[in-house]
Amino acid sequence: MKTEIRLPLGLPEFEILKQSIRNQKIILDVRTTALPVHCPLCGFSHVKSHDQRLRRVRDLDALDKPLYLMIHVRRYRCLNCGEVFSESLPSVPHHKHQTHRLREAIYLRCQDTTISSISRQMRMSYKTVERIYYDIAGKKLSDTPPSSVVGIDEIAVRKGHRYETVITDILTGKVHRMGANRDTEAARSLLETLDARPVKTFVMDMWQPFYHAVTQLFPDVSIVIDKYHVVQKINHALDSVRKTCQPSLKGVKKGRFSLLKRRFRLSEKNK
Q1: What's the rounded Cα separation, in Å, for the pair 252 and 116?
Q2: Dist CA 177 CA 189 (whole Å)
Q3: For residues 181 and 158, is the Cβ–Cβ distance under 8 A?
Q4: Global model pTM greater than 0.85
Q5: Structure confidence by residue, pLDDT tens digits, 31-77
Q6: Using alpha carbons only, what angle is made at residue 132 by residues 177 and 73, rounded to the nearest 5 degrees?
Q7: Given Cys at both, which of 29, 51, 63, 154 links 18, Cβ 3.0 to 4.6 Å?
Q8: Which CATH architecture has domain 149-225?
Q9: Torsion angles phi and psi, residue 30, rounded to 5
């Protein structure tokens, strides 16, 4: 009785020569179906077979098992220039050990969880998953046009309150420029590099030097204070009111966290 299952590979340039399962891994021996029509170096159309090499590439999992393609890569010699070249593999990036679709799937899955989690799920090393993610992310960000929403913030670079100013694209997450210090002049020098961009909105905290630099160079743009600082100020104001009313209201002394909670999270006693 036959127990094997044959599923379409979904990579039209390959034909399956053999399939097997070894050590809980699905192994497919494949080769390309189309022969090269010309030399990629000189363009000459007359080539002859040179030799064949085996290339191991990982593809999308199948039946909850890692799937590997053992590609029988044919090499050819050009009869004009004499160079030896390998046949092209549209589904596999040059010098990579995964197919395009597997690398894209890993990148998309990393959007919703950590690289460590994907590494365990895919049974791949952390470094490999990390390299794939940042390789694709870098290409996608470089191909993404800059948006009109710009963020300005500071980061601590060393102990002792040493800061740098960072200009970022809020919608793409791409860092535009960084510079030393976080005063008005430092912020202005970084913001001046944005003159060619159609900036409509700045997102920042309540640091006055940033506000002054933005209003001096971009007087007509909208300024949005990030919600963390807005909520922080509201909580401080609410706590100040609680302390003022505390002597005259019963039960307010220990009700600080009850006042900060959302109403649907309060118990009947807290209400």
Answers
A1: 45
A2: 10
A3: no
A4: no
A5: 998 877 788 888 888 888 889 999 999 999 988 899 999 999 999 99
A6: 135
A7: 29
A8: 2-Layer Sandwich (3.30)
A9: -135, 165
